[in-house]
From TrEMBL:
<feature type="short sequence motif" description="'KMSKS' region">
    <location>
        <begin position="246"/>
        <end position="250"/>
    </location>
</feature>
<dbReference type="InterPro" id="IPR002942">
    <property type="entry name" value="S4_RNA-bd"/>
</dbReference>
<dbReference type="InterPro" id="IPR036986">
    <property type="entry name" value="S4_RNA-bd_sf"/>
</dbReference>
<feature type="binding site">
    <location>
        <position position="190"/>
    </location>
    <ligand>
        <name>L-tyrosine</name>
    </ligand>
</feature>
<feature type="domain" description="RNA-binding S4">
    <location>
        <begin position="371"/>
        <end position="432"/>
    </location>
</feature>
<keyword id="KW-0648">Protein biosynthesis</keyword>
<keyword id="KW-0067">ATP-binding</keyword>
<keyword id="KW-0694">RNA-binding</keyword>
<keyword id="KW-0030">Aminoacyl-tRNA synthetase</keyword>
<dbReference type="InterPro" id="IPR002305">
    <property type="entry name" value="aa-tRNA-synth_Ic"/>
</dbReference>
<dbReference type="InterPro" id="IPR054608">
    <property type="entry name" value="SYY-like_C"/>
</dbReference>
<dbReference type="InterPro" id="IPR024107">
    <property type="entry name" value="Tyr-tRNA-ligase_bac_1"/>
</dbReference>
<keyword id="KW-0963">Cytoplasm</keyword>
<feature type="binding site">
    <location>
        <position position="51"/>
    </location>
    <ligand>
        <name>L-tyrosine</name>
    </ligand>
</feature>
<dbReference type="InterPro" id="IPR024088">
    <property type="entry name" value="Tyr-tRNA-ligase_bac-type"/>
</dbReference>
<feature type="short sequence motif" description="'HIGH' region">
    <location>
        <begin position="56"/>
        <end position="65"/>
    </location>
</feature>
<keyword id="KW-0547">Nucleotide-binding</keyword>
Amino acid sequence: MSTASPVLSRQANDPSFPNIWQELKWRGLVHVSTDEATLEEALAGDPITYYCGFDPTAASLHLGHLVQLLLLRRLQLAGHKPLGLVGGSTGLIGDPRQTSERVLNTKEVVSEWVESLGNQVSNYLSFDGDNAARMVNNLDWTGGLSALDFLRDIGKHFRVGTMIKKEIVAKRLNSEEGISYTEFSYQILQGLDYLNLHRDYDCVLQTGGSDQWGNLTSGTELVRKVEGQHVHAIGTPLITNADGTKFGKSEGNAIWLNPEMCSPYTFYQFWLNTADADVADRLKVFTFLTRDEIAEYQQKVETEPFRREAQRRLAWEVTSLVHGEEQTQKVIDASAAIFGGGELEGIDEDTLTAVGTELNHVVLPATDDHSIIDLLVKSELVGSKSEARRTVKDGGAYVNNVKITDEAQSFGSNQALHGRHLLVRRGKKNMAMVSLESEV
């Protein structure tokens, strides 16, 4: 693995800060931590080894994980040595959720997801140089551990009274469903991770979301009790929107980093739709722009919000980071073409299909030709055939960006993009996607 990626090679921390700790604080990436003064001193000194764990509870990472991935990268750019941990064993157990017990996945599924997540994590780190990243899997040190050894050597260092005070555990204990011994034991396994990484790599810092603080401190306490060493942890804040809603979902669906689960087009549109009140904070957390650059964009939001320059820069930066610059440009070109600024024929089918998910999308038989009147009505761009006829007469009906003036004109697979898709538009901005599908 190398730093050949143009996105990685372009990344840098902001030199206007005296040290990386001060930059992390300014970017809003520190919600809670172990002793701040000692941690700042450690990060400003010689390179240290640090880690973050990612459990394979799905086939892909999502935007919440991107916060951790970028924190790992910022610390690496400061000269420190990252360990990317994918939880082959903790993924078999499952971190306790706020509401109910997890459904355990099979070992085969977890193994597949371990590989998938490991590849994703690797994309955000450099594996070259003196502080090259390394990937680890906690199944390597737990797979052969017997239950007796686990209880004797590790379990004896944990006090049940302390464990049940952890926020999520306490919440689950007070619920009707309660919590299983399996999920209750998760924090011990995560503590064991830190102990092993400290022993094998001299790891002295773990990062994670602030909702994981109980698990993070399980590790710091275990290292202190067993090794007599004081190690560190950083809990990042949970990202929320200015209106208090949960960040990282679009239409109720998670924004995944895997393009097969969330298309680059949908991903780009998510960032482009960032509210003015949130965009400066998103630039701080999810991009490597300097504070002077972010201040300029914040000023533009205040003086010329209609230009949405900050949102466009945010969407470009994060989509390029996750999907690459070439794919991001394709998405931008597709967006322009859809609104009449380019050739629709140049849009690949995957992107066009993704566009359909963002619009009102209807499926009609490919065996029939469909009049412009039917297309407008069935795509719900108008409420009636008479309104559709007025739209055509007034010059407001378009199919694939071509103005339609004949209300009798029909469309089928021969006129469709990639033989399947018709982009139907009323006026400048009211659009729908009609897909022509053959009956099976």
